[in-house]
Amino acid sequence: ESVAGTSGQAAHHRGGGSTLVGKRGRRIREEQRRQIGKRSISHQQDPLPSRTKAKAAIAGVMNKRPREDEPSSSQKRQFGAGGGYGEQEGYSEERISAQRVADHYSARSNQTLEERENSPIIHLKKLNNWIKSVLVQLYARPGDCVLDLACGKGGDLIKWDKAKVGYYVGVDIAEGSIKDCMTRYNGDSDQQRRKKFSFPARLICADCYETRLDEYLREDAPFDICSCQFAMHYSWSTEARARQALANISALLRPGGTFIGTMPDANVIIKRLRESEGMEFGNSVYCITFGEEYTEKKFPASRPFGIKYKFHLEDAVDCPEWVVPFHLFKLLAEEVMI
């Protein structure tokens, strides 16, 4: 039931839970889709401060546990980040970093098929796409309502279409990526990519690690499946952002719904750092660099958030990222009922 990424690790939530709620659930979903109608794709700019992507290492699935004391929809919409992390004012540095990530991905243009095939990391891109395809095909059901966090330029739209999902909402911090995703959905100028998708969709530009998404998606929720591919580690700059990311997923998934995602393997990153002579390691196509504050290469368990490094991947990524201790990610997910 678990899906392993390139590190051979998997993240399967031990709480279990179904991926569909039976005939009654299907009737509810069908009724919601009738109310939604054949909605054309839209681009909604988040009026709040908008400020979210990178390599495969851990892939897996978590099921939101059905509970007898599950909050009602109105109660769930009041669910915030919580956690006693204090005021947001001290996080200006993290917001600047988040904006750097957004600017980086907004500036990247969609590649033609020829450019893609000539990329120095084409095999890595194909591996990453295979990992995502496996997750989508295993856990998405026909007619599912999908929430895609950090959807980027819409590279996974075809995967969701093959899974025959019923409705799609994509959220991304980068406005340029959202516009490219809209173009891809509506049919872009590359005739080889032109495709009509079978599901209605909605796109929102927002920082899903800082914005309360339930305030914008009341009419769309609950979702059957939520996906966050190669992006959850961008939330780990502070505890507040990590909690808000998971709070959004918990508030918007239906009971028994499924969360799938991928993120870098913190154990591999730290191991490679400690094996290197300096503060960076890599090869001809990628480089990971840690700051001088980590010269001793020690990472206290009491400070698991904000462990930043710079990640460069040729023809793909050049921005800050954060280490995510996976055992802590699972504990935090359990705390917010995923």
Q: Which labels suit this protein?
A:
10 helices, single chain, Rossmann fold, eight-stranded mixed beta sheet, 12 strands, 338 residues, four-stranded antiparallel beta sheet, disordered N terminus, alpha/beta
Question: Would you kindly provide a written description of the structure presented here, covering whatever features stand out?
Answer:
It is a single chain. This protein is of the alpha/beta class and 338 residues long. The protein has one domain (9-81, 91-265, 330-335): Rossmann fold, CATH 3.40.50. The chain is 33% helix and 20% strand. It has 10 helices and 12 strands. It has helices at 22-36, 73-76, 92-107, 113-117, 122-139, 157-162, 175-186, 239-252, 266-275, 326-335, and strands at 9-12, 43-45, 58-63, 145-149, 167-172, 201-205, 223-229, 253-263, 280-282, 286-290, 308-313, 317-322. It has an 8-stranded mixed sheet. Strands 9-10-11-12 form a 4-stranded antiparallel sheet. A hairpin with a 3-residue loop joins strand 9 (280-282) and strand 10. Helix 3 (92-107) runs parallel beside helix 7. Residues 1-59 and 67-91 have low confidence and may be disordered.
